[in-house]
């Protein structure tokens, strides 16, 4: 797989524009509040209100899976742009500021009506695992008219997040972005995002991946859910039949790249302590796609992914705290 | 000095209700953006907008000097309440959540009109020093009618922050709170907050401190500014003539307590690295007043202050990240 190096953009990301609200909690908190550990659960206004009230004091920081990935690519020295929807409210301003000042182009105007900017209530347990409860707000209303075709055509890779696959207009937005990218001969990439998402959308996604996706990102639970198996090796072989490249992360076991009939196993970049796993997959994808943009081979791409993921899990928050260029 | 242990509240704090926006910057950033290092500078909407645009990605977390102090007292196991003004906006919700869930009573309804909730753009340089640029918004409009007399009478100590001394109605609010506390035989406390604040309000504050304040908190620069001297020892002696107790912090040199004609020097609690000095003075005051509430002597109060300050400077953000009860 080779990303066209002559285009103005390396990657354009399409996803839910979200501000994360992060607090450290005990395991008991998850039980008491019926939070599904390690997952991303969609919540409504009422649940957001009651769960937030129960949470300890937290910090707010910009998130959103694809946006985190774009921030990672910019931090690595790549050229990234972002498509997502915020409101003209305080959290929308925070999201725009953090995304732009992190070096990612994000210029679409904020919506002036509708629901507020999305937020995700993230509980981090002492083991570093994150459990996310997302109120999608305006972000879920991304529609095909929000996709800038010229922008998509100007990027070597179009990267879409599975989390966005929720409302009909957002599904159409993803399909439209993928169609435009594909017609222009660009690489189309999708992250499966969450095993519960895969479970909800398995049939649609199997078709989408087979028809339209060149490069898929998934973790072990997600790829296993896709093929309704407990056997990772089998799932890896099955997804490899649908796409040109599958980059599969396995937490502490490293990652596996399936490409051109080969399987490549890559170890993790050691970190002193997993403080907050939020953003691990997002930053792996960032490193991997940055690797493609500089012409690295599959092993090089996966290693860049591991380095970027290792940085983001060593602190609270899903975007890099240091310039990732200093780590590579 | 003895705080009445039979009252429902140990301390009620009165101050500017602020959400902090914190980012790590270089020394050059401060120069380029004309930021006064180590100070709290008031900024208007326009400057807030241009400075925020120039700042790197950051995190949002609740702050406000007196509110940080109340969070510290609650974290130490004391009973604290807070009086300050937020709007019914997203940052106002964040401030209320963090304050209440940190164990501080804060029940006054949000303003439904007027300026937005206050925010402070805080730049943290590699030396751990913080430089604050505060857009006061609705917080500056605290007025005597916002002071709940019954609440003030129910607290052993009423603690006011000098930062709030800006608009006429806020000055009246402080005077009113102090008068109510004093008439009820409670301890009246003031922090001088910032040397530039002292410089702006020296004459008014000399009168206020002499007439109404029992317990004053100040750092070296603030107490020196109060008496327009470079000689800390001389300033310490002068403020001791105006109040029953003066608790004076000197950064790495520890703190000095002037009380009953005596001077007591207390060392700092060692920390591995000063990550972010924001909240150091606020948490020192928290520890000191918590000490008064449990009947500690002056040395014990100062030591509790040092422990609480030591925790807060070891991480980003101005409120404790661990239950301070675990440190004492």
CATH homology superfamily of chain A: Ribokinase
Rg of chain A is 18 Å
The percentage of residues in β strands of chain A lies in 15-25%
Helix content of chain A: 25-40%
Q: Report the uncertain regions of chain A.
A: none
Give the count of structural domains of chain A: 1
Bulk shape of chain A: globular
Strand adjacency order, main sheet of chain A: 5-1-8-9-10-11-12-13
Largest sheet report of chain A: 8 strands, mixed
Q: Which chain pair shows the most residues in contact?
A: A-B, 27 and 27 residues
Mean pLDDT value of chain A: 96
Level-1 CATH class name of chain A: Alpha Beta
Compute the separation of the termini of chain A in Å.
Answer: 21 Å
Structure description:
2 copies of one chain form a homodimer. Chain A has a single domain, classed as Ribokinase (UDP-N-acetylmuramoyl-L-alanine:D-glutamate ligase, 3-Layer(aba) Sandwich). Helix content of chain A is 38%, strand content 21%. Chain A has 11 helices and 13 strands. The first copy, chain A, has helices at residues 27-32, 45-54, 65-75, 90-101, 149-153, 168-183, 195-212, 220-226, 232-240, 280-293, 298-312; strands spanning 9-14, 18-24, 40-42, 59-62, 80-83, 118-124, 130-135, 155-161, 187-191, 215-219, 245-249, 255-259, 262-266. Chain A has an 8-stranded mixed sheet with strand order 5-1-8-9-10-11-12-13, sandwiched between helices. Chain A has a 5-stranded mixed sheet with strand order 3-7-6-2-4. The first copy, chain A, starts with 8 loop residues before the first strand and ends in a 16-residue tail after the last helix. In chain A, 57% of the residues are buried. Chains A and B meet through strand 4 and helix 4 of A and strand 4 and helix 4 of B.
């Amino acid at each position: 797989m080779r990303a066209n190096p002559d285009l103005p953009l390396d990657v354009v990301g399409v996803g839910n524009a979200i501000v994360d609200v992060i607090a450290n909690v005990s395991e008991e908190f998850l039980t008491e509040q019926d939070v599904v550990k390690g997952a991303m659960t969609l919540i409504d206004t009422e649940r957001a209100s009651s769960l937030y009230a129960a949470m300890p004091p937290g910090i707010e920081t910009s998130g959103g899976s694809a946006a985190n990935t774009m921030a990672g690519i910019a931090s690595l020295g790549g050229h990234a742009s972002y498509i997502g929807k915020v409101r003209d409210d305080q959290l929308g301003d925070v999201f725009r500021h953090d995304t732009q000042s992190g070096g990612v182009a994000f210029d679409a105007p904020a919506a002036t009506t509708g629901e507020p900017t999305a937020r995700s209530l993230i509980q981090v347990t002492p083991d570093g695992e994150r459990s996310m409860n997302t109120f999608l707000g305006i972000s879920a209303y991304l529609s095909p008219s929000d996709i800038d075709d010229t922008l998509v055509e100007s990027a070597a890779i179009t990267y879409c997040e599975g989390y966005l696959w929720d409302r009909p207009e957002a599904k159409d937005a993803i399909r439209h972005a993928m169609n435009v990218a594909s017609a222009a001969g660009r690489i189309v990439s999708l992250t499966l995002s969450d095993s519960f998402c895969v479970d909800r959308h398995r049939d649609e996604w199997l078709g989408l991946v087979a028809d339209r996706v060149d490069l898929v990102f998934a973790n072990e639970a997600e790829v296993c859910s896709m093929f309704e198996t407990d056997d990772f090796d089998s799932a890896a072989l099955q997804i490899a039949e649908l796409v040109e490249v599958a980059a599969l992360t396995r937490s502490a076991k490293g990652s596996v790249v399936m490409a051109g009939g080969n399987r490549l196993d890559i170890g993790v970049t050691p970190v002193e302590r997993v403080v907050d796993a939020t953003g691990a997959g997002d930053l792996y994808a960032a490193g991997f796609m940055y690797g493609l943009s500089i012409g690295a081979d599959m092993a090089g791409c996966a290693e860049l992914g591991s380095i970027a993921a290792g940085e983001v899990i060593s602190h609270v928050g899903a975007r890099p705290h240091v310039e990732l260029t200093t780590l590579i």
